[in-house]
Amino acid sequence: MAEFIQYFPLALTIPNLLTLILGVIGGLILGATPGLSPTMAVALLVPFTFHMNPITGLILLGAVYTATVAGGAISAILINIPGAPANIATLLDGHPMARQGKSQKALYMCFISSLIGGLFGMVIMILFTPPMAKIALKFGPSEMFWVAIFGITVMAGLSSGSIAKGLFGGMFGLLISTIGYSPMLGVPRFVFHDVLIGGVAIVPALIGLFAIPQVYSLAEKLNVQIERPDYKPQKGILLKTLIDNLKMVKTLSIGSIVGTIIGVIPGAGGQVSGLIAYDQVRKFSKKPEDFGKGNPEGVVAAESANNAMVGPSLIPLLTLSIPGSPTAAVLLGGLLIHGLFPGPDLFLNNASITYAFIASLVLAQIAMCIFGLIMSRYSYMVMSVPNLYMIAAVTVLAVYGTYSVQNSFADVIVMFSLGTLMYIGNKFGFSAAPVVLGIILGPIAEDNFLKGKLIAETDVGVFNYFFSGPMNLVIILLCAVSISYSIYGEIKTIKKSKEG
Amino acid sequence: MKKDLIVSLILLAGSIALYASLSLMEEPAAASFPRVVIVLMGCLGLVLIIQTLIAGQRPPRPVLQNNHVADSAKAPKDSGAANRFSFGTLVVCFVLILVYFVVMEKLGFYVSAFLFFIILTFVLGRKDLTLHKGAVRIGIAFIFTAILYVLFNKLLVVQTPKGLFF
Fold first, then answer.
1. Domain containing B149: what range?
2. pTM for the model
3. Given Cys at both, which of A87, A282, A456, B152 links A465, Cβ 3.0 to 4.6 Å?
């Protein structure tokens, strides 16, 4: 906490504050735009931050990450399309409120409860991240190897319809990370063409896997008409909504606590927190039958939970490299291109950058609420941007972002090829997130695998080294639980559909 | 089911081919980690084949694709006139992007971005193209490129692909 207070002023410099405000406004717009995913937005921004100093760059990424979660609620409320999976629970009561002519009230409730939940989550994050990082100090090569594998199993279960497909994607990502020269022996691997000599860098992979499939998806939906939102501004509603919102102490508490707990669990994600909080609030309500018909408590529960998740979801990311969501995986890529490796090093040798980043996330929550309230009445405008312009703009930015990091045209070809392949993969139920995580965690996994193998061969043997010791066993158990849970979910879905 | 089976077989065959390519590596020790990964990929390919054969047509389950909740089984199954049109649009989009890459090396980033923006919006949006809409699209392309120029050249001061112009 002392370090947090010590480095807080670093986030308050004029350039950093301006970047933060720009990031929040941009994040709200991108979150509210149907067809542009928050993950893609952050992925496109990563190369821009490469040319900034690390603090400013990370502030920009953090601000966009924070604001897109809340921004996604705008389209959920106004046009019944969640801007991000985190906002699925918001539309259950948010859109019925809009249909009753209470769009403005629903949006105000959304931003105020997002702020309260978000700040609660940030406090938990500030208190628990540094002690968690100290645990990572005790990890050797075998534990680090298993942590990387755990990250992939978590993401595989979270983002794919089938755990086998998710794991295949993760393994494919690990394999992509081995392309180029072997870091330990200096020999080329899988260099089937000159463009692959330098290997596959993180930024082209991030942009290709997230932005190019989106370009094709937008092209698919060129003729889709989005319903025009019904938005009627009402005078003097802000103060009344604020008072109404603050009266919902029980709902805000349930939302914030559920969001925080779900956020800390790696891979559980925002959409789960919103839905669980919504369900709990409905169960504790005196009038559960009102939910789904435009009950403001539904919006408050969902939004306080999904924003409370933002801070805690970064605890496993910053301490163990395990992102809690696809967007957090991209954020991890942003940290790595600035040479910042999650773990204790982040809090010891790069304390100024890390704590300034955390401080900016707190400020981003406040800015998100202020600008969200201001922009509410104009938010419908971004929903009418034609797909044609978005296709052109996303492609140009993807090309620039990829080229700019290493001034390499080969990277642009790699980005486009990976993206086209991912689009085809998407059609068969494969997801980009495990592939990205495989590429990001690949070097960590390989480096620690080889180090562990060398140690093991002169000591207890490879099997004993990797499969013994309390830490190894706990992480292996977590991997098994993560995979089993996903398989259980798949079986349950099949059973349900057979019954239905 | 047939499509899933074909994809699973391709994944298994690809894993076997990659495993075979490991023998071409100059230093066998450099292949140890990729070998483990490819073996796991092969096993997962097998699991996918078995899953497809046993379970048959899987019921749709929400899938997170690029942070959008999509329906895993719905997209590939959808067919009909609308989708056939989408496929044509996709091919046009793919070709235009490829041409954009080739042209970018000759004309430079800004000129090619400006032309790509105009051509893409004109070609994909040709159905409802009018004189007024055409002028608006050119105007937006110009403003977009100008913003990029100011952002990259003046504010961030970064290198962009150079060509005949700037």
1. 81-155
2. 0.79
3. A456
